[in-house]
Each structure stands twice: as structure tokens, then as C-alpha cells.
Amino acid sequence: MTDLNRVENLDSIEKLRKAGFRGIDASLEISLFEYNMVWKDLGDGQWLFVHATPNTSGLPDDDDMEFDSTPMSEQDLEWIEDKLYDIASHTGVAIGEWKSQPFCDRIYDAVSYLGFENIFGSSYGGFKIEKG
Hints:
By secondary structure, the chain is of the alpha+beta class. Helices cover 32% and strands 17% of the residues. Helix 3 packs across helix 5 (103-114).
């Protein structure tokens, strides 16, 4: 039996779904392959993100996409405090409204504005996930 608590075993959309991952879109596949990330609530304010690793141009390469995982919590966003106005403006909402959004939505917004590497850090390898 595959241990779905080990990230390297999450090599398909179905396994991610069974493990309880969600995304920005109702479709887990669209969330992962078009929006480039999905997440799982680990409890106690901890989240696990599975996200595309950028190629050298900084954008995921659709043909040879690899993924990595990063655990995160609210404390991991403290460093962007001086960028909140810019991020909120980027999304079209006031800072107070942005701060009240779910954590995963704020991470998505921060990645959209600042980039994957600035939020999740550098990735020196990854794993493949099968579509469909």
C-alpha cells in the first residue's frame, strides 16, 4: 500500500486527491498544471504546498514539469509585511480585506506577485506528477 503521507509517493492527481489536497480551481488537475500549486491543511496552522519548480526562465515548463513541496504557516509570511500594499493592489483589494482571506489564497496571491522562488525558496530537484 502506498503511503500518501510521503510527498514523493504523490505522483498522480488521484493520489493527491485521496491525500486531501485542494487548489485554487475546483479541478485539482487545473490547479496543479495551470495555476501550478495545490495544498493540504496539516492542522495547527500548518499547510503543505505542492508546487511547480520553475525552469531557468522562471516559468514552469509544461512538457517536463517537476514539482516540489514546501510546508508553510502564517509565520512564513511575516517577511512580506512591507510588500502587503503592493500584493493587495495587485489583487485589487484593500490590505485589510486581503489579510482576512484564507491563508492559501494569500500564498497564491503572494506567489503571483513575487514569484515561486521568493515564496517557496530555491528548488534543486523535484518529482513528477502524472496528469489525469
